[in-house]
Amino acid sequence: MDSTAPVSPRLLLTALILGAVPALAATIAAPELLQRWDLPITAGVLVGALLLARRRSAERVPEFPFAFGLAVVIALVVPTSLHLSQPVPPTNDERAYLYQAELFAEGKLSEALQLNELVDFTLRRRQVHEDQAQDLRYAKYPPGTSLWLTPGAWIGWPALMAVSSALCSVLLARSLARQYGLPHPGTLALLLALSPFFVLVQSGFQSEIATLPAALLAWWALLKVREGASRYAVLVGLACGLVFLARPLTGVVAALACGVGLLQLGGGAAARVRAIVAATLGGLPVLALMLAYQAAQTGEALLSPYHAYAQAFGPWEDASLAPDQRVPIDVYGNGDLLAGIGRQAARWSVGLGMLGAAALGFLGLWRLRARDGGAAFVFAVGLPLAYSLHWYPGHWAYLGPLYGYESLALLLIGFVAMAAAAPPAWGRNLVLALAAWGAIATVPRFGLIQEQVQLRSAPERVAATLPDDSVLLLPFVAVPSMQEFGMKHWTPSRHPAAERVAIIRELPRADHMLRALDALGLGGRPVYRLSPRTDAQAGEPDYEALPAPDLSGS
Questions:
Q1: What is this structure's pTM?
Q2: Radius of gyration of the chain (CA)
Q3: Would you give the DSSP letter of residue 106?
Q4: Which of 26, 299, 311, 390 has the fewest CB atoms within 10 Å of its CB?
Q5: Helix 208-226, helix 159-179: angle, nearest 10
Q6: Quick one: residue 371, left, alpha or beta (phi over 0 = left, psi -120 to 50 = alpha)?
Q7: Whole-angstrom distance, CA of residue 378 vs CA of residue 263
Q8: pLDDT of residue 58
Q9: Pairing of the two strands 136-139 and 128-131
């Protein structure tokens, strides 16, 4: 199929309808996948595009005035503003990435536990592995995201690196649009900058902020190789390696997809072999770095911190089981493939901001396969397929399949390619509708993220009102579900004795709590207890002062 061949309205409508089916099916089969306003807003954008398509136009894809400059401003200003509005990250994963980045900024790979049975629980963090055998603590995740965040952590504002990621991605998206031969590359950059999925992810510290620019760099280098600049093959491998360093499964899918593109090179078998070898050599240093990091953290080069954490801890596992009887659940491969595909497809149905638009993206990448050897299409299809076997479907707060995020810019390229080949009124107004109204889907979703932020920042907001050299206890509740709630949402201080207000977890026995306070160097300080709330809308968090001799709450 020629990427420049005309596209009929019938084909556009068919793709949009088929692309909408997974979201519509999810409202019946799995209503928790989508949030309340996802379907009405993205369906409204689609209806608006179809109504606009009735208007005549001579231009297929519009050239917005100052589109690229506007994209750069949006990529800098919007994520910065959203980061400034969030006192803490909305998820435990992001806190773990930031924790490891803080360690890196201090010149450390890990920190000593220096705990005993009493104080162990008081400082426990979710998604942070506490290796009792080596007496070390470190984040369970691969190091790539934390390495990306380290310069920002070093200056005390890690959001700088999230904003830098957004800017790099917009720059690379425009360059890719040029290489794919799309009209008005600045328009593509603007669509990415306005995409609600892009805005929401870049407003946080999910690992995808490190992998998106690295994946786009791999595609940029791949297209350079296919244009005849064979020296960029090393960069293809290096960029895929950088993706692997942050998200290993995504890195493997990216490498395989780029390999498909390199195998379609002209110049004969010798040229293809040279390109594959060069790309492999480019990725080897990053692989060596990953193995060295794993060896330093877990003691085994082939044992990742992620797997070590999964072996030691499982949130729904029977804690009474002996360690050798536990089945790691927090790992890839424990999901239901068909259910996973349905989840990924439903989230892609709304992920571009227009209901069904992702289908045009997939179709457009298929039509562009002569440019990249089919690599982008393989990646966009392979990524959600690979993660469909993962036990966890991806965080619900972000508008789209988070584990397919790295293909967002590529799907937008496919969408614009389809618009460029469509009848003028259709192509122009599909793009206009996505640019003008698609960003509206950001608003309700960001409201959900802010609810999580308000909930998780309760200890920090209370601590800001307490006197210096005091202690705030994260409450212990005998009800297991409530205790899990507290463990999940509230994170204690890293170095309690060094904090203005030390935030630690409460122990169920008062005498143990007093001894733990003394062991942590916090004895004699005034002590307060956070009053737990399970509803982010229930008002400001509350606390109570505790008399030093009695911490039982009875």
A1: 0.93
A2: 25
A3: T
A4: 299
A5: 20
A6: alpha
A7: 13
A8: 65
A9: antiparallel
Q: 200 is written with which tokens?
A: 């929401």
For 156, 305, 308, the CA distances from 295, given in Å and listed in that order, are: 29, 9, 12
Closest to 4 in 3D by CA, of 370, 369, 428, 420: 420
CA distance to 14, 278, 434, 524, per residue, from 422 (Å): 13, 39, 15, 73
In angstroms, what CA-CA distances link 349 with 167, 357, 399? Answer: 26, 7, 10
Residue 503's DSSP bridge partners are 472
* Contact criterion met (CB below 8 Å) for 213 and 169: yes
Q: Which residues pair with 138 in a beta bridge?
A: 129
| Closest alpha carbon to 436 in 41, 147, 170 | 41
Token pair of 224 as six digits: 């350079």
Give the pLDDT confidence of 244-257 residue by residue, as tens digits.
999 999 999 999 99
E-state strands within 127-261: 128-131, 136-139
Q: Tokens standing for 195?
A: 């995409």
Token pair 């004699």 is found at 524
- C-beta separation of 46 from 20 below 8 A: yes
Phi, psi of 33 (to 5 degrees): -65, -40
The amino acid occupying position 370 is A
First to last CA, the chain: 74
Lowest-confidence region among 6-20, 314-328, 367-381: 314-328
Cβ of 459: how many Cβ atoms within 10 Å?
Answer: 24
Tokens coding 417: 């390619």
pLDDT, tens digit, 9 for 90 and up, residues 321-339: 666 666 666 666 777 888 8
